Amino acid sequence: MTLPTIDRSSYPTANEVIARMKAMNFWPKDSDTTAVALAERQAVIAAESAAEEWEHGVDWRPFLVGYGAETNARKFDNADQQGYLDLGAAAQSLTSVTLDGTALTAGTDYWTRHFTEPVQGRPITGLLFRRGLNVYCPRLPELIVVTSSSWGYCTEVPADVYNDVLDAAALCVLLGVNNPRDISNISHDGFSLGFDPVGPVDPKTVLNNLGKNFYKQITKHRRPY
Length: 225
Prior knowledge:
Strand content: 5-15%
Mean pLDDT: 82
Distance between the termini: 38 Å
Number of strands: 7
Number of helices: 6
Structural class: alpha+beta
Order of helices and strands: HHEEEEEEEHHHH
Low-confidence stretches: 180-201
Strand order of the largest sheet: 1-7-3-4
Largest sheet: 4 strands, antiparallel
Radius of gyration: 22 Å
């Protein structure tokens, strides 16, 4: 399996994790049906866990547009005293901005501020409001509502990120295949092969100990605070 060199529309799937392991000659022999069944199920768990770990680590809420059950309308208590509102996330575009229920006009009432790194579309990360607007009022909760149908840092997963997430997931499966007594007690949709486990292992815990490149990438792409 040749690793992708172009951006991808989604995170690695279980089938892609399996293909990666087979390309590295780490997949169990077909004759070992128990190990194959375990590895296939672990591939599903690992693919989901690696993507979740990435999203949680970079904290762009979300990193990939469309990932997770994101709410289009997000509420904020107030901007700072200089009129700047940090969205605590990124958006490709905004549908509307309201202040205490009143719609505001882009370019007149507020201006978008963008992440400075050259990235796909340079996402919106903050708003600067014009002077005179009462955007700083700590006693009024959820004063500002920002709505977007495209919350996210990027519209595609960069190739290097995709590859590191893929390898991290494959390593999780590899550990499970080689140490079935350690991981057989993971429950996922009722899955169990009935081994006598030493103890359950969470794939996210495995990820914490695997793949230096994976966590270097997380640090590189993490949302600044």
